[in-house]
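Comment thread on ticket #2218

A.B. wrote:
> Attaching the input chain for the structure job we discussed in standup.
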Amino acid sequence: MKKILIVEDNNDCREILGLFLTMIGHQAIKAKNSKEAIAFAEAEGPDLIFMDIELPDVDGVKTTAILKQNPKTSHIPVVAITAWISALWEEKAANVGMVAYLIKPVSPQMLKETIEEHTNGSLTPRRGTTLNRAFCFAVFLGLAVVTQAQADEYYIYQGPNGELVVSNKQPPPGSKIIKQQNLPEAAQAQIPSKPQPNPNVQTEGSPKPSNNK
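C.D. wrote:
> Ran it. Output below, let me know if you need it in another format.
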């Protein structure tokens, strides 16, 4: 198990990425801005940092530069995960010591390979989690398939048995609610007319598309 710090100001992205890392056997630490990232990196000593570029206080490149100047955190590999498709920012990221520059959306396989490459370790995926991982990232990217066209509210939660569920129904007792949100009309319009059922993932409502940065 590796300890991975997620630096992401978007709440949905941060929580879903953290859930994905947990499901494949890693420990996720979550920071929503540069200040928290620096504090958690020094206190927790993670094996890897996933760094968003656009943060509310100090951007991810400058935050990485600060981490690289600190003897306690300079050795930690930092990977950019961003929606900024920019050769200039990619060059800036490399110049401060970021080891990779990944553009959202990032596939689960790419994330897994990146973790293995930069932490010198691999994990055998937990049995029965492949579909959940794929769906987890569908939610992360705002691409989840739904089954009810008139939903006006949705929940993202882990059920009592650990399954990931997106639904417009009240979660059952013992569930862990990850997100509860009103569904905008624009998202309702994207609901497919003939969704494909998935025996491992319950999808009864539609999540709001993520506003990835």
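A.B. wrote:
> Thanks. Noting for the ticket: Helices lie at 11-23, 34-44, 60-69, 87-95, 108-119, 130-140, 185-188.
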